[in-house]
Every structure is written in C-alpha cells, then in structure tokens.
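Fill in residues.
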C-alpha cells in the first residue's frame, strides 16, 4: 500500500522542486501560446515587439539577449518585422555603426493591443494566487534563478 504524503513528509528535494517547476511551466505554456497566437505573430516576433514596447528603441545586438534569440535569429526576426512594417531600423545618433530597432506606429498599435490581451490571459491564470502568494513566489523564484545563474 502506498503511503500518503503529509505536509511533514512532502518531498522538498532539488529534483522534486525542478519537476514541479517544469510541470507548472508546461501547464502555463498553452495559455501563453494561445494568447500570443491571437496576435497573429510568432512567439519570437511577439517577444521582440514586447521588448521594444517596454524598453523603447534598442540596438539590434541588445534585443537578441533580452528575448533569448541568437544574433542570427534576431537579425532574421527584425528583417521579418521590418517587412511587415512593424519595426524600423535607424542609425544611432552617437555611433553610426549601431543600428537601432524601434516600433512603427503600426507595430506599436499591434503589440499594445496584443500585449494587453496576453497580460489579461496571464492574469486570469495567476488569479488563483493571492497578492502575498504572488510576491512570495516572485521573490523565491528570483532568488533561485539568481543562485542558479551564479549571481
């Protein structure tokens, strides 16, 4: 007969923590993907536009690491977004070697609406947690992530 776990015997090992984090992430992913899909953008394009919405114009080589894209992938993504009229490339005022990417009015309108809908979808999922639970979860996840990153 299998022993039922109680709070006192709950598994708190590192491997169990990783497993629970992965299961939670996998459960959240379809909700995020669904709200992003409604924008008719791919995941990487959504991430690039969202970064520009919240950070303002950025050099191309700065955008990639912020949205987890390699230098080759960010170039392709920016080319695609330029062709769609959602971003433009401009020279940097102080350094002519640097190319900045910024939202066009069309891109800003699309990502403002799309991000708002995405935020609402994520809020709906997160509504199961109280404000204190959210703050505790955020603090602990940041602590774990910084430790894992060697910070």
């Amino acid at each position: 007969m299998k022993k039922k776990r109680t709070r006192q015997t709950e598994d708190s090992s590192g491997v169990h923590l990783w497993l629970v984090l992965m299961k939670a992430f996998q459960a959240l992913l379809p909700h995020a993907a669904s709200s992003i899909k409604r924008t008719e953008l791919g995941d990487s394009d959504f991430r690039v536009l969202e970064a520009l919405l919240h950070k303002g114009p950025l050099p191309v080589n700065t955008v990639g690491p912020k949205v987890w894209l390699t230098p080759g992938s960010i170039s392709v993504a920016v080319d695609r977004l330029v062709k769609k009229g959602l971003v433009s490339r401009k020279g940097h005022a102080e350094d002519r070697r640097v190319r900045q990417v910024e939202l066009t009015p069309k891109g800003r309108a699309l990502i403002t609406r799309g991000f708002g809908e995405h935020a609402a979808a994520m809020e709906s999922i997160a509504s199961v947690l109280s404000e204190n639970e959210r703050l505790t979860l955020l603090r602990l996840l940041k602590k774990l992530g910084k430790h894992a990153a060697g910070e």
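The CA atoms of residues 40 and 46 lie 9 Å apart.
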